[in-house]
Input
Amino acid sequence: MRLLLLPLALISLLAAGCGDGNASNNATPPPAHASGGPANPRPATVDTPTVASPPPANVLVPKADMIAELAYTSEAGNKVELAGVCKLGEDTVACWGPKGEPNKDLEKLMLESLKVPGIAGSNQPTMGLKFGMKNRVVVLKVTSPATPSGGTAISALNVTGFGSNPMRQSNPIQMKMPSQAENGPFIRYVAQPVVEEPSAKTTTARLVQRDTLKESKELPMKVGETANLSGQLIKLSRIISGVRDPLLAGESDRTRPSWMIEFDQTGSAGLQISIHLELCDESGVPIQYVDPQGSPVTKAKFDELMQSGNADGISATVTGATRSEPRRVRAVIYVNPEVISKIILHGVRQTTIELAGIPLDPKK
Output
């Protein structure tokens, strides 16, 4: 699940298995199961058709929840630290460490990475030079603890941006993957070009930590219904029909019916929660497959249609594009709201960290 950071809330969609709607001890949303058809579908209030508008071109950079100097380690053991900063020439690389000291190991790693196109399946980006500015490459070392065999990580720490405007980034440099110790932590490097004013002494990086909440909440599929998720009041405010999903490009996709669910969120201003949605039928069973009209299809029916070669138009995608605004989240779905009895909300608490004090120049 990938995301745009805003001060209050983000929403991402996960078509997973529905539970009974009570608080759960599961660290992550349960896996998807087969869906049955609706029984006595419950009508939902539906507004007039509209078109999902694209996100604004200019997004204000939200204030980080906390500031860390050069390194940050979460309670779960995820760590991001500054490996160093590099200045690239036509055929030269000069790198320094967190204190401005020369870093020959990083220079070697950077040269090896730049000389090998195709790392991670793509060529290295063409890096532009902005005249009169400080053009640098910031390199972070990311360490994730080993996940037990068969287990699922309940906490994640990701690098989401660099520099004075972390919301607008150029293509990263694909760094050579270091050797990994068996059953040890997973280590990788993240490198991003940054451009700062000539007077700037330091720059920053933006991190996002996501911790899966243990609780889950049930929200009836009815306008006006509310649920309290970890101190945040989530209200289903509108259901809009005829929404065109901007992520759909195929000719058949353009005619596929879709709807938008709009939620209002109130609660602690400093608390950021992203939400995983599960769409359930009247029996409380997850809706996993839908036909071209947005009606649920059972797993058995889907398998039967696949074997007969008549499964055209049947889709395993029940959710689509999302958009976040302050105090409001919107989600596009491909299931007719009239056959959805409830939504199960699974939360992920988000914390944004600003990694400060990254030196733009070596120590003289």
In short: Residues 66-206+353-359 form one domain. Residues 1-17, 19-59 have pLDDT under 50 and may be disordered.
